[in-house]
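Re: your question about Tricarboxylate transporter

S., sorry for the slow reply, the queue was backed up all week. Below is exactly what I fed in.
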Amino acid sequence: MAVSAQAASAQSYEGKTIEYVIPFSESGGSAKWANFFAPLLGQALPGAPTVVVRYRPGAGSTEGANWFQGNQDQGDGTLIFGDSGSTKFPYLLGDPRVRYEYAEWQPVLASATGGVVYLPGDLGAKFDGDMDDLKEEFYLYGSQGATTLDLVPLLAFKMLGLKVDPVFGVEGRGDGRLMFERGEANIDYQTSSAYIANVQPLVDQGLAVPIFSWGALDDNGVIVRDPTFPDMPTFKEVCEATEGCETSGIAWDAWKAFFVAGFANQKTIFLPKSSPQEVVDVYVAALEAVVSRDGFIAEADAVLGAYPQLVGAAAVEATNQATKIAPEAKQYVLDWLKADYGISIE
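Result:
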């Protein structure tokens, strides 16, 4: 979206405070993401306002999202909201706790992340680009729950024909990794930053072998290799190479919808829908200045990973992809959750 300098300077926030609300606690990835962008955004907005991150956790992020939905009339630019895949998944699944509507929010920036699936050294030695020689193994996987971000790996494992028994109730992916290290699990995935920090040393010792990343989306919505792991195949590549795994059809459409919502567009900054175009333009111009400034890529890579930061029209398109799912694909996931895990969403 092209924004003129005149439009960008028409609105000033000098002396004002911008509330940057996220529906999570002060710990975790969303807080890290929001606190990374908050000072940069404050410097780039006209008048250099103070951007303060506010935390509204509860009900798996739906409580804070419902609160933002109730404040859609605050369109003067002093309120912004940051979601996560944990906010998008209940929306896609039709969770009855959801009272928010993404179509009524105005995206201005979308951030991606990635993830890597890995096996112990002995099993990883059998991986040759497909999972055909690994289908007879029995796997244990430490999971936070089938309707959390773990939906993406659990559905991927099913599509690959793997016999995976999830151990539900781990409090975070770090606990899943510890199960792997103790030999209590023999398949795991970690988000990119956690993989680099905590799993790469295991790989270096021969204790873990990466088999694929989830991949990333290009500007046309096509899954390509993760820029943080360009030499690693994507799940799509491994699926195409594995007998019985299809990259078209209802299962694939369902997996991609949740991959986009959980990883390719995991976190988004929104303005209320009532925000006039001049406010949207000011934010887009400020965020374009942030992501194009000298040193931003290195700073972002160190904190967020080597992923695109989509601004303006690109953020709108990414959000459209991340918050829509074909009815038949949604029903496929609901039926799968019920059949495999006894989970009913109603």
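The first helix runs from residue 5 to 9. The radius of gyration is 20 Å.

Happy to talk it through on Thursday.
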